[in-house]
Automatic annotation (TrEMBL):
Residues passing through the membrane, by range: 56-73, 85-103, 115-135, 147-166, 186-208
Protein name (Swiss-Prot/TrEMBL): Uncharacterized protein
Domain of life of the source: Bacteria
Top-level taxonomy: Bacteria, Pseudomonadati, Bacteroidota, Chitinophagia, Chitinophagales
Entry keywords, A to Z: Membrane, Transmembrane, Transmembrane helix
Length: 216
């Protein structure tokens, strides 16, 4: 059930971001196709070889960075809906649940969960509350509050990404040697750095890009 939950979470992230991007076809085609490629490679055990250089996780990380830069530049401010981007962050709630369960199974270190140094679940819960507030109040969020929330939530995301990278079995591993981040190498959890994290990061960056010109 846990793998299925994570697959559904990944699909939800793609669909929610697609809608928030103004139904951009390139978003749908790239992230759906890339998810299939990464899922196939991880299913075959491609990423479990961690000793031979260069690290195979670069196949995930490098395209993820390129995708973030590309879609940040591609998507126009007027096509992006900041209110809908909030819903993308709600997927952080099931992601954190999955990470905690993986910790109990010995597949990720405690530091990657809300029982350790990962406070990213607060971003997911607060995003849900903000989204519901917008729906039921009919009011806009204060400009500075929304910007501050995006910056704070992005910092929390960066913190857990760094912890995840340096806890994974690789030549640059620095933490969690007794219980490393093995899940990131396995199907379907490789989709976290390949799909879910880039979409969440893009959701922050696009809001900040939009907010430079006008309020939403």
């Amino acid at each position: 059930m846990l793998p299925l939950l994570f697959i559904l979470t990944t699909v939800a992230a793609i669909v929610l971001f697609f809608r928030a991007s103004g139904n951009n076809r390139q978003v749908a085609v790239f992230f759906s196709g890339w998810a299939v490629v990464i899922a196939g490679l991880s299913w075959k055990g491609f990423f479990q070889q961690t000793t031979a250089p260069p690290p195979r996780m670069l196949v995930v990380l490098v395209p993820a960075v390129i995708a973030v830069v590309y879609f940040y530049r591609l998507l126009r401010r007027r096509d992006v809906t900041a209110r809908q981007l909030l819903w993308v962050h709600v997927v952080r709630i099931p992601v954190e649940y999955v990470l905690y369960r993986l910790f109990l199974e010995g597949a990720v270190p405690r530091s990657m969960t809300f029982a350790g140094y990962n406070l990213d679940i607060l971003s997911g819960i607060s995003a849900l509350l903000l989204a519901l507030y917008l729906i039921f109040s009919g009011k806009a969020l204060p400009h500075r509050l929304f910007l501050a929330w995006n910056v704070a939530a992005m910092v929390l995301l960066i913190v857990i990404v760094v912890i995840a990278i340096i806890s994974a079995p690789s030549p640059i591993q620095l933490l969690a040697f007794e219980q490393p981040n093995r899940a990131i190498l396995l199907f379907p959890y490789t989709l976290l750095p390949a799909i879910v994290v880039p979409l969440i990061l893009l959701s922050h960056l696009l809001v900040l890009k939009k907010e430079r010109i006008s309020r939403w």
